Amino acid sequence: MLKKSLHTPAHLFLDNTPYFVTSAIYQKRPLLADNAIKQHLLETIQDCFREKNWTLNDWVILDNHYHLLGVSNKGDDLSHIFRKIHGITSHVIHAHCSCELPVWWNFWDYCPRDEKDYMLRLNYLLINPVKHGYCDNLHDYPFSSFHQRLAQSGREKLAKQFKDNDGYQKMVLQEDDF
Prior knowledge:
Blueprint: E1 18-25, H1 35-51, E2 55-61, E3 65-71, H2 78-97, E4 104-110, H3 115-131, H4 146-153, H5 155-164
Antiparallel strand pairs: 1-3, 1-4, 2-3
């Protein structure tokens, strides 16, 4: 675990381990509201994960933050991956929005302890567009892995997943205070 300053969250560096990661725009500004920016962010995340042989399982991108679920290859690559994601995308966001710097606030990572914990985080991630009022139906939100998950699992299995792992409704993540 590494903590460099009071304002930097501690990070775990574990190999071959599931990670739930959240990152936020500084001061909750809606700098990711443009669909082209969301698409650029997603492609950058995919490229950076692929570069370090990490697996990106699920993701959601909202107007001022995103959540990811993936599996590490080498845990020591965690900070490098997110520095690169945020470095690349901050230039594009800054140019597009003419916003004040900094663009990104930070990222928080959490390693689910078991399958149940993982499923709670997955459901939290998937339901985030509804939670934040972007849509009433997950089918209507394009910047989420919900559509992939639905295609892979099917409606019945996905409905059972939400029913069997409903603790996500009570989850409050520390980064909700960013």
